[in-house]
Design goal:
Length: about 260
Amino acid sequence: AEMQTAWETERGKSAEMQTAWETERGKSAEIQTAWETERGKSAEMQTAWDKERQEINMGEFIKAKIYLLRLSREDNTKFWIELSPLEKKFAEERNRNAHRLDLAISIKQVTIHKGLNLGLIFQALYGISQEEVKDLLEMDKRCGGMLQVESIVGCHGTLYSRRIPSRFRQPFKQWLEAVREAKSQIDNTTGPDACEEDTVTACSALISRIDDTLLQEVKRLGQICKERYEGDNNQSGIRTQDHDEAIIEDLKERGLLSKFREI
């Protein structure tokens, strides 16, 4: 009888433990469900944000196209451009986050919308062609981002989108020439398969191919670009005739003004 009682007691404890385990498993399932729900919300927010960034970027491209085409005409006060239905759609989707360009998105959009002359607009906005910046970005990635290509080229895009790249333009051109020379030194010293692994050793090996004086000059000019960007970007944003004339002169120097006149 005592053994039977003990057995019943143990069985009761086992049942209690089973119940407790089932309860905890239920809580765990609830937590898992809540986590999945939150992850779903996060994914939805990310999707919405990505869509918004796409719209912002395309809106800036269309706005820049209208401005640059007008600027390229002799009598620009009477100039009018008829946008295509797709361009009108992009222009309408432009929202309060105006002027904020994203370099990576811009590169993709130039590739996707080849019929909208975005390649020329990209070159005007960013101070460099889509093809060349992709090469420089790849090189800088292999160098651990030391040359700040994405950041500084992005600054050029933002200021041009705002139409106020006043003090930034000259140091940017000097920085770009220095970065081009750095790439040339890397390309002329290493073979096509060298230093492909993304390691500290590989980065150091690539950077060591750049003349130290040149490397320091790239860093110095990059810092000046950042400082000038902050100064220009903190302006009121009111475009003046001086801003327009400076951009016209810059486009002439880069051989782009005549190309806009041909559109």
